[in-house]
Amino acid sequence: xxxxxxxxxxxxxxxxxxxxxxxxxxxxxxxxxxxxxxxxxxxxxxxxxxxxxxxxxxxxxxxxxxxxxxxxxxxxxxxxxxxxxxxxxxxxxxxxxxxxxxxxxxxxxxxxxxxxxxxxxxxxxxxxxxxxxxxxxxxxxxxxxxxxxxxxxxxxxxxxxxxxxxxxxxxxxxxxxxxxxxxxxxxxxxxxxxxxxxxxxxxxxxxxxxxxxxxxxxxxxxxxxxxxxxxxxxxxxxxxxxxxxxxxxxxxxxxxxxxxxxxxxxxxxxxxxxxxxxxxxxxxxxxxxxxxxxxxxxxxxxxxxxxxxxxxxxxxxxxxxxxxxxxxxxxxxxxxxxxxxxxxxxxxxxxxxxxxxxxxxxxxxxxxxxxxxxxxxxxxxxxxxxx
Length: 387
Description:
By secondary structure, this protein is an alpha/beta fold. The chain is 36% helix and 10% strand. It has a single domain (5-383), classed as 3-Layer(aba) Sandwich (Arginase, Chain A), CATH 3.40.800.20.
């Protein structure tokens, strides 16, 4: 083992581009990579470009006819088959769509392989986390489900218990669906309530067909730092302690942020950083340090996403960035040159997040506490835990 974290990166992933009017602007990936370099984190990382996922790997999760449909749409975007979710407003087809989607999937699969083999303890693919793609359809800006493919590859290599924690503002529906009946995988998703946000799934009662293999915390719209962190710490650590994963896979969509234009939570960059650090700590507590961390959603592509995922990468590299750190001037100049937007000056939103531990008691009239109780009552008994 090198002792250094791996950053999975290939400039070609910035070709995952649905067009100029689509909210998933690939500039967010390029700017994140540049900010990591601006903070001189490259010297603490092994930068690795894995090969694209081949058809046999993609078939670990996706149907053969769907893969064929993606390839066909890549050759002729105008002929994309909407029966497979392709050519829609959310997932418009584009040239070489299969190639770049398979490349992103390959980075996550490569991360999983590196962690399982012992080449590294921590591997990051911030271009990944495309958690909505289903076995037979594109969905929610996601063509191939790299998170599910990474987990499936771990199982193929012999892992007996893999935990997946998803803190994107949207429910991790595609990963949940892929392992709905598999007791070897525990999926935990914290997300905005399905009443108010796509994909309208992720209710507490969705617990899987395999003894509580799925856990969902549906947060009220407007939930901020204190409630988000309270919910995370009221559910995730206890479940991981019971499940005892051999590998922890986490998805860190940055769209929980209060500036994100597509959702309705009010979480700060500073709270996102707290959860990233908590996931790192939980990997060491419960998975012998084996941690695969992925990106996900995030549509405040200058102010939020690059800073959030640079914090994530720095934590994985063992050189966390202080929130008050000044953003390097050369990066701010590049942001303006690329986007004509002014970049943030520091690696913080100026918040100091605090939360009440669940053990301190709960308020039955509080909507956030009601959401936590609903999750614990639905899922905990299935795992032999007291709600």
